[in-house]
Amino acid sequence: MTDRFKSERKRQPDMKKIFFINVLQYRPELPNFSDKYKLLSDSYHGDIVAFSPRRHNKCVFGNFKFFSIPIIQINILKHIVFVLGVLYYGLISHGKKKIDVIVAYDPLMCGISACLLRIFTRSKLVIEVNGDVMNAGFLGELTRLRKMKRNFISRLTAFLLKKADKVKFLNHQHAQIYSRLAGISDPEVFIDFVPTYLFSDGEPRFDKYLLFIGHPFFLKGVDILIKAFNMISADHSDFSLKIIGHCPDPDYYLALAGNNKMIKIQKPVFYEEIISEMKNCYCFVLPSRSEAMGRVIIESMASGKPVIGSNTGGIPSLVAEGETGFLFEKENISDLAEKMRYLLENETVAREMGAKAKKYVDENLSGPVYIKLFTRMIDSL
Predict the structure, then answer these.
(1) How far apart are CA 357 and CA 325, in angstroms?
(2) How far is CA 87 from the centre of its chain?
(3) Which CATH number belongs to the domain containing residue 139 in this structure?
(4) Residues 220 and 167 in one domain
(5) Which residues are within 8 A (CB) of 232 and not within 5 positions of it... i.e. 6 or more apart?
(6) 208 and 86 share a domain?
(7) Model-level pTM?
């Protein structure tokens, strides 16, 4: 990865052109976003469009140029601006050289934009399902209005997925559910890109704190994690719990923590700081109520750390029970507490699990593995 930000590679005349439609990117120059396109530049070229609060129209990642769409605060207007922005940049891109494949990051806003752009370009279409779009936003009690909204989103998702030449999922559980809904016969299933090499350098430390990173807090089960940690904290007073992520209403979670000074809730940090947190923590915990993949799991495993995760979505496909970490029954506070207690009381086991996790990531979840699977998918079109 010697060529960094704004570097362009020599493009071969027979390279396929891909137009990526992404979501919000605050800092697209960071390696967790840009390195994917630098690696893909060995075989492809094209453009990327996404929401961004700053203009990045001169960003170049290998053979891919990044174009930003301004964020509008009014929700309906924001969606209209996004669709129009995608069509604008897409048609300009197609006019310079034919787009071979359009890749949409999700089946809703990105998928709608991609289907409209495809009408004008006649390109092949790949829609990625990088989350549980039908259920993740509808956890908890369902009112009649929320049920109607979920039903509408389910029908719209199925309609859009049927328009794709290929649909990519992050885990087999979601692939089965959505394939039945949309009648998909040959879905692609593999992880999203993660720059694991950033986390694998050097020997990991095992400082005495458990780590959680993510948002939104309810979807990620932070309340479950706090309650479980409170159950074991008195017996392991030398360990703390560090919770990092954006939370617009932290008072509820601070109240759950009560007087436990070993629970530390922090605001989001820059990506560079996430790397050091992963390398230094004792173990990583992801108690999600819904999870398509769990990028943070791959990052923590690459750092040589054991993982405790809920047995839902794509987490079981990443965490080998008793080998690289533990799985607990979703929303089962006692089960999570016991898994944490065992790991805290057995540092040798924690270190062995961490070493196995790192080895598994290197062999199965690295950037080059992603590129190989992505290339196979594009070539199948």
Answers:
(1) 8
(2) 25
(3) 3.40.50.2000
(4) no
(5) 337, 340, 341, 344
(6) no
(7) 0.91
358 with 371, same domain: the answer is: no
Q: Does a structural domain hold residue 2?
A: no
Could you tell me how many residues make up the chain? 381
Nearest in space to 222 (alpha carbons), one of 189, 246, 206, 202: 246
Helix, strand, coil percentages in the chain from 3-state DSSP, rounded to 5 = 45, 20, 40
Whole-angstrom CA distances from 61 to 94, 169, 242 are 19, 25, 34
pLDDT along the chain (381 residues), means of 10: 47 86 90 95 96 78 94 88 96 96 96 97 97 74 82 93 96 92 93 94 93 95 98 96 94 94 94 93 96 94 97 94 97 98 97 97 95 96 92
Domain containing 79 equals 16-195+366-379
- For residue 148, what are the CA distances in angstroms to 19, 152, 158? 33, 6, 15
d(CA 130, CA 196): 19
Closest CA to 122 of 79, 163, 65, 162: 163
Enumerate residues 6+ apart whose C-beta is below 8 A from 259.
Answer: none
308 and 372 in a single domain? The answer is no
- In contact, 328 and 308? CB cutoff 8 Å: yes
User: In angstroms, rounded to a whole number, what is the distance separating the alpha carbons of residues 280 and 277?
Assistant: 5
Same domain (yes/no): 204, 315: yes
209 vs 186: CA distance, rounded Å: 43
Secondary structure of residue 331 in the 3-state scheme: coil
Cα–Cα distance between 161 and 179 in angstroms, integer?
9
- Count the neighbouring beta carbons within 10 Å of the beta carbon of residue 237: 8
Structural domain contains residue 261? yes
Give the single-character DSSP code of 238.
T
Structure tokens at 59: 């960003």
Question: What is d(CA 55, CA 65) in angstroms, rounded to the nearest whole number?
Answer: 13
Tokens at residue 3, please?
């060529």
Residues 270 and 341 reside in one and the same domain: yes
Cα 220 to Cα 247: distance, rounded to the nearest angstrom: 11
